[in-house]
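Worked example 4.2. Below are the chains of a multi-component assembly; read each line carefully before continuing.
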Amino acid sequence: MPTPLELELEVDAATSSPRRLSLHPDRALPADGRQRAVAREIYGQTAELPLICMHGHVEAEVFAANQPFADPAQLLVVPDHYVTRMLVSQGIDPASLGVPRVDGGPVETDSRAIWRTFCRNWRLFRGTPSRYWMEHELAEVFGVDLVPSAETADAIYDQIEARIAEPGFRPLQLLDRFSIELISTTDSATSGLEHHAQLAGEGYGERIIPTFRPDAAVHLDRRGWRAEVAALAEVSGEDTSSYEGFLGALRERRRAFVEAGGLATDHGHLTADTTPMDRGAAARLYARALAGGQVSEQEAQAFAAHMLFVNAEMSCQDGLVMQIHPGVLRDHHRGTFERHGQDKGFDIPVAAEFTRSLRPVLERFGHDPRFRAILFTVDETVYSRELAPLAGAYPSLRLGAPWWFLDSPEGMRRFRETATETAGFYNTSGFVDDTRAFASIPARHDLFRRIDAGYLARLVLEHRLSLEEAVETAVDLAYTLPKTAYSRRSA
Amino acid sequence: MPTPLELELEVDAATSSPRRLSLHPDRALPADGRQRAVAREIYGQTAELPLICMHGHVEAEVFAANQPFADPAQLLVVPDHYVTRMLVSQGIDPASLGVPRVDGGPVETDSRAIWRTFCRNWRLFRGTPSRYWMEHELAEVFGVDLVPSAETADAIYDQIEARIAEPGFRPLQLLDRFSIELISTTDSATSGLEHHAQLAGEGYGERIIPTFRPDAAVHLDRRGWRAEVAALAEVSGEDTSSYEGFLGALRERRRAFVEAGGLATDHGHLTADTTPMDRGAAARLYARALAGGQVSEQEAQAFAAHMLFVNAEMSCQDGLVMQIHPGVLRDHHRGTFERHGQDKGFDIPVAAEFTRSLRPVLERFGHDPRFRAILFTVDETVYSRELAPLAGAYPSLRLGAPWWFLDSPEGMRRFRETATETAGFYNTSGFVDDTRAFASIPARHDLFRRIDAGYLARLVLEHRLSLEEAVETAVDLAYTLPKTAYSRRSA
Amino acid sequence: MPTPLELELEVDAATSSPRRLSLHPDRALPADGRQRAVAREIYGQTAELPLICMHGHVEAEVFAANQPFADPAQLLVVPDHYVTRMLVSQGIDPASLGVPRVDGGPVETDSRAIWRTFCRNWRLFRGTPSRYWMEHELAEVFGVDLVPSAETADAIYDQIEARIAEPGFRPLQLLDRFSIELISTTDSATSGLEHHAQLAGEGYGERIIPTFRPDAAVHLDRRGWRAEVAALAEVSGEDTSSYEGFLGALRERRRAFVEAGGLATDHGHLTADTTPMDRGAAARLYARALAGGQVSEQEAQAFAAHMLFVNAEMSCQDGLVMQIHPGVLRDHHRGTFERHGQDKGFDIPVAAEFTRSLRPVLERFGHDPRFRAILFTVDETVYSRELAPLAGAYPSLRLGAPWWFLDSPEGMRRFRETATETAGFYNTSGFVDDTRAFASIPARHDLFRRIDAGYLARLVLEHRLSLEEAVETAVDLAYTLPKTAYSRRSA
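Applying the procedure described above to all three chains together yields the following structure tokens:
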């Protein structure tokens, strides 16, 4: 056991100057010395594996345009609601962070000012994954060697600005630099997929693929639903004035996504309810909503649940893997939504339920070899209670990676601790990042591999797994499982 | 601190050949070296204590017949739904695993083929308690020294087959080999307890005892409820055509269980609700159900809740300890239920509630010295929120051991971490295994003792407990508490 | 790695005689050697910081009278429901512990007998925070050097009795001895604050302050509500016969609390619901209740929710920080309540909900710089699911310290592990003790500082934080944040 003094020296060596940023090679590996040594060996076998990024939110346009990133603030602060919400939570106005206003009103445009605000408040991120990812991005991606602070803000800004001006830092070039083998964008049902077509023409068709996300088309009570249905008619060539035509349009769009290389669909609903409606009742409700009639919250939720069932049925036909992301109450603060729009950090989880909610789909398709659903949650209580028992029984189910707030060192560790004993490792999907912050993708995958290495190392030291098995499992979780989980089912 | 190299050697020594199965003496003890050393001392004081098995599901007939086990697959795979569900979850058909069909249709009968499927898929069990128990059974009980795999399947089969043919491996002989001091079977209210009578005649009357489980008689909406009530009349000699007669029959059966050495009842309900019904309303509902009238799901649940209250009342009279196991939605996949029947791995937990649900029984009997209830859950969220506060106040309550999916290394650890601070150790029941896999019983008790040793070792090292106290507590948890928790209350 | 023998010696050194009580300097620091060494350094920087005690339940009268404590049992056992409930849970009658009866009936008055019962049952507290606090109190505050047991009970009694007779052990003198910089009492809306006035006259006005707790005035269905409203009229000089007058009286009382140095309000509700009622409907319901008309449970809860909204509005005007403590079902066992009254260990948590419940208040005041709410829970599931996401977004919110059953080593550790990654450290309030056991206050703060040091040490060793940052954070959590979280908002 090292003495306190030795320890202090060791710690100091890693953090020799409070102003000097460097990534310790053992970061996020277990604190315990024996566990760390085993974890290091396991991590060593996965660190360099290519990345499979099947739940990305980088826009296809970013790759199609392949322009240099604007500036450090516009790249790393303004669009990242993990970052802006933390600054807002301490009383900083979103507008002063350059977060655009819905009404086009004035917001801070001086990117240096925004960047300084961020650096000055660096301590707020202590203990958060945002801090961890940001350090990785700064050091590994942009070659920054200073810890953010009021004093270092400008110097860091300059370093990043210089780096993103280099030709090797354009989006498509970063794919190689980041070892991204496959990345999926997230696209609305009405997307014409033009950017994907362009990218396919440039040889990226199998590397950058779309994911079909029909949320805006299935929530009758969301603003703009009728516009979405009209757009759906246009892009699909189907007549969506009837419910049958609406289904036909969705089927047609799914076909177009498959043709564009798509492997999956994605569904963000308030609940995981999948109860189907009677076909006649669904058609009547659809017609009423389309005619501008009143639709209650309950009716809208029933229709959304029904559409999960319908999409599951379609997945059996076209083989697209179904991703379900329930349990988030969007736009909790109306004022923020009205001033700044969606995805501004005010989406708050609610308690989730899967056992009863998924039963209709699982009764029908749960054992169908053509069906595959990957489940996500921001309510950890369902890991051991519902998700692991379900995934440990139904062949169609896989558990997705810890999602959103849970995509973090402690969150990932708890996921393994609470899900593995019942679901095993092989009913999980491996890592799926979930970000619009492109530059953070390598950090996220790397963190997952480190945390998994730590968990597996403990199993090895507790003699619950051999080292050989642990390494094999780690490789499967980092690379093999995401590929097989998202392979298109043969219809 | 060992260097990585030393560590590697140490790990290798434990797993020197990937094909060679051996149990490390420190398995499931804490990974940390200091904690492990203390845990080893604590565990050393409990490892050899006899087993008290008060929630078993081995059939009394198995002991009464005392025949050799059929073969490895029929012993270790086919009847264990923990094992078959995991294989099913990866697309293997239950029929190909020999799981009998309700309609008597064909299933795999080649036990070697079933065993090979199991061994070939050994990796699916990584990180699960099934893997841990099975390793223990193979190595400790059957003397197997090979790791399961496609290549080793036949050799392992031969080793087990030879061992179970030995006279010392019959069920009654294993009681001694396993150091089982007391084992309870689980018997329906209509059981004539003939096997127990036979075993009593052979001198096993105080070692193999029945537990009274009236579930089939109290759920009005289950298939076969009326047949159960008719059988109840027959075995009890009471006229169950009225509600009063029904209660009389239950009272009479409980008496017979007490006479046969029974110490406890067991209740598996969807919820923990114990709200009593008005006696007249209960009688009318009973009469309607018996006459084949319509009973709604709500009415059936209300009656089941009422019967928990009634059984609590009866426990005050006859002193049987009441075990409550709520929160599982049985037979989630109807198709599997219809093809293969109950207990096939498709029982999925739902959120549990105890605070309000138990209030009626606790208001009435919670301080009654004649009453004892032991509570189980598969929803961990209630440990710190509801169960520990309840058991830490009401003298009639004890917390049962982590149950079902939670009967696992991480599950047990979390139980101690979340329940102990509020309930203390002495409001828990100690370990209660819950299995129909007879050969896994020693593994389960051993694992519990190891995990508890690890938890107690941490408390010692954090100076929250002396080593002497930790050892005393460990012995109490492993042996003393299960005996005292299940001692019949003096009425 | 120490050998088992070395370890045994080391452990023995700390616990050399089972009868000899001594506090190990490293107690409650991490078991792991490396983590402990770092934690020790961090803890060293916070151990001596003054205490900010913003949620105390010591009566103002105790300080105003400043009398010696009665005797060991009356000081440490009888009034502490954490202690009595544990003894009750093992079948000991509250009356035999001297817990007063509502009807004034006989209870044990021999304090030595009560103390002996407590000491004889010392083992029940193993693994609980009560044990940890009590050891600290005995050793640090009262200089006891014996472990409680049947044999040592009288000797310990004598030691404490002698100590509390010393002039330095009176309540006001203990403020200095305990380094309490600021302590808040909890006072009903109808309190005349006479003791605070007296203390202010003695120069304690800024050190001992009141907290405004209007619970009895806002729950229409609680016994004595009308008497409370009448008392409110009297003390405020407002006419509470109308709803408007009732609001005026509350406003006036809040003003008086502000004048007496109060910084906060406190609200104990069954749920966190903050839905406002229509003003007319609230007035009518108030009038009906005041006239003795029937008020349903739903109506009473709706009114209580409304009053949370109203109090939030008032906080924006007078700057009092709002503390919300929901989710406890009070007086679960009616018999205990009727015999012994409130706060006797039979308050049991229920599942909590914050996301939807707080929305009305947060929509309106969540971004108002004059508003501050500090949230508490006894349902841990909301930490990562609801509370951290809310506090990590809304500038008005802070997360309070782990509360009640969760104010414990494991509870605190889980709080940091589940809340920090999303809320950060700086959206928490730092430590707030919650006790009527005055002598346990230093133990509670000290424990919190040790657990936080352990958590921060792990982050340092995982290279997620520098040691310098960890120390700064620890100081903020122990001292700076409680002061700033509870600073009165400028209206």
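Take a moment to check your reading of the output against the notes. The first strand of chain B starts at residue 51 and ends at 53. Residues 68-166 of chain B form a domain with the uronate isomerase, domain 2, chain A fold (CATH 1.10.2020.10).
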